[in-house]
Amino acid sequence: MSLFSLPPIPEIPVNGESDGYAVRRIFCVGRNYADHALEMGHQPDLEAPFYFTKAPAHLCLSGASVPYAPGTQDFHHEMELVVALGAPVFRGDRDTAQAAVYGYATGLDMTRRDRQQDGKDKRRPWDLGKDFEDAAVIGPITKAGDFGKVAKQEITLTVNGEVRQHARLDQLLHDIPAVIAHLSGYYHLAPGDLIYTGTPAGVGAVQAGDVLEGRIEGLDPVLLTLTDPE
């Protein structure tokens, strides 16, 4: 028995399956497109990826309407390919890493940019900027075999129908096997782990009333509507 009743573990719909994908952890790769690194004032880092995390409780399914985030005046969209793992991998190589992929989804890494900048300026963690309610938006998962190889698929984001972000998946600085293999050197990765793989250039502010739609060829879109702040 527990002292308090907690929400159930979040699950993501999977195309072709009646059961959902239960989420264990959420990892996010920072500055994984060269143009995005440059627009944020950094040189692209080819040596190794770096990461931050989001709590599974902060997952938000596509199609939701959520309030403009509290505590920010500079709320940003970041469109990403999300990888869902379906097998354990620890200290894996590229082949082991790729074999551990269960499926892919479209995702939004919503960001309180001003709070993230506070952390950078004061050499403090990014948690207030990255890890908050409804900050990890995700569409339905498509199984890896149905999606095929991550290659030159286009990744786009529109806000109220206007294109804000547009790139290709083969422009990732660190590709999917490299990210998983590297991350598995620090964690025992397992089914239920999600990896948001990084956003292209074009990130920017959104406002209450905006409708966001992110697309990746071969995957279901991710949709989000922002309502007035609470």
TrEMBL record:
Pfam families: FAA_hydrolase. InterPro entries: Fumarylacetoacetase-like_C, Fumarylacetoacetase_C_sf. Keywords: Metal-binding. Residues 26-219 form the Fumarylacetoacetase-like C-terminal domain. GO terms for molecular function: acetylpyruvate hydrolase activity; metal ion binding. This is Fumarylacetoacetase. SUPFAM superfamilies: FAH.
